[in-house]
Design goal:
Blueprint: E1 56-61, E2 66-73, H1 90-108, E3 115-125, E4 137-151, E5 154-166, E6 169-181, H2 183-190, E7 221-223, E8 229-232, H3 251-266, E9 273-280, E10 291-296, E11 302-309, E12 312-321
Antiparallel strand pairs: 1-2, 2-4, 3-6, 3-9, 4-5, 5-6, 7-8, 8-10, 9-12, 10-11, 11-12
Amino acid sequence: MSGVIPGTSALRPSAPPPTSATHPEPGPQPSLVPNQLEGAVPRQLVHRQAGSEVLLTGWRRETAETFALRATLPRAHHFYSDTNGRHDPLLLAEAVRQAGLLVSHAEFDVPFGYQFLMHGLSVECDPDGLRVGPEPAELLLRLTCHDLRRRGARLAGMSYHVHLYRSGAPIGTGRAHFDCLSPAVYGRVRDRPQPEPPAHPAAPPLDPALVGRERPSEVVLAPTADEHTWELRVDQTHPVFFDHPVDHIPGMLMVEALRQAAWHAVHPEPLRLRALRIEFHRYAELDRPCLIHRTAGTGSESVELTVTQDGELVADGRVSARA
């Protein structure tokens, strides 16, 4: 295998410029990097504007549909913080999300400017495998693609699963599936008014202690009249969820909302998250209230939740706790 990424058309300046939906503003294209398990990963490959939010550190193609990737979990993250001496499990979810984007651009030639419509994301972990050590945690991700869909020669979507290892020991698994939309198709799907309506203002947050947080700025839930329903707080200045401009509520913000709702269900005990699954059914708009509902479970084993907007189902999921 050569030292250049196979299928570098996704990295050429002639590729369509990024749109505001999932990419930062257009800038210099990343330099070609060695296709090695160890090496720099350009932030554009994982749809991040801040280099500090890039968890992946290298990758290598092993077969036509399998890849080995490396990721580093920082000892301290400004949002996904240490929980009871362990790395935040949602860092694994973010690493799984980034892995699918990377292989799509770098190995399946999806151009920059294409939008990724995520349909589902899940992660399951061994909390003991996430213990914080004296150095950042180095992970190996073995990713296998399946159900690849193409429109002509172009990748149109796929599913994939990931096995995660730390120091050779398995610590978790992840799954995801998405569609890749060209700028023209995305424009037709979204069909948003121009200029876009102003954002819906964020409501006052819950007490951080109720959802496992320390500061009000970290809380993504606001109370409602129903003790099992919360309004999603959408702060477009948040440096993690709004790392770059988007025209809809980000999926990872909804993932965090489900986690906080599950934490609320077990309070005053801490949530020892073991697994989280979410399925997305439609876009959630920034200019209207979005609601999180706890539909079943007390949190002792698992909590089932839904996300709605204007009475329509946006997403549903389950958060499972460690026994």
